[in-house]
Write a structure and sequence with these properties.
single chain; 152 residues; mainly alpha; 0% strand; Haem_Oase-like_multi-hlx; Thiamine_Salvage_TenA; Thiaminase-2/PQQC; Thiaminase-2/PQQC domain-containing protein
Length: 152
């Protein structure tokens, strides 16, 4: 599917930031296996907190009246994906590590970011709610594709 002109313009504006993200030392060390286990565990625990709050924000957005039933179902499906598919992977790590997500609190940056997402979804119109959540999908997908391509 071809990008719309405004989407292409946004990606172009963010190009330097995206390039830095693609080459971030944390991601590179995760890719090459040199990331220290405590750092990986911290990341997975924080990601689980993030996904829980992101899924909740998707559900809240799906309650807005501006969406069709089909769009609401899609948002609930995306929330379910965050809750079940991704967290299922995390739970397998937690089991092997003998840890639970409740063992740690969300770090301040995680809490601030997810609180911001939720606040925008709750207090602003549906378009702004979509706008605040959509980059999460885009960047995760883009970086994931780049990481997979790097492994090949």
């Amino acid at each position: 599917m071809a990008s719309q002109p405004h989407t292409t313009a946004m990606w172009e504006q963010a190009r330097d930031c995206i390039a830095a993200t693609e080459e971030h030392p944390f991601l590179m060390s995760m890719l090459d296996g040199s990331l220290a286990m405590p750092n990986f565990q911290f990341y997975i625990l924080q990601d689980s907190h993030y996904l829980s709050r992101f899924g909740a924000a998707l559900r809240l957005l799906g309650e807005k009246e501006n969406f069709s039933e089909e769009e609401k179902a899609a948002l609930r499906g995306f929330a379910d994906g965050a809750d079940f598919a991704e967290r299922g992977l995390h739970d397998s790590f937690f089991k092997s590590w003998h840890k639970q997500v409740t063992d740690v609190e969300p770090c301040p940056n995680n809490l601030l970011y997810t609180s911001y997402l939720t606040t925008v979804v709750v207090t602003e119109n549906y378009a702004e709610g979509l706008a605040v959540l959509l980059p999460c999908f885009w960047v995760y997908m883009h970086v994931g594709q780049r990481l997979l391509a790097s492994r090949a």
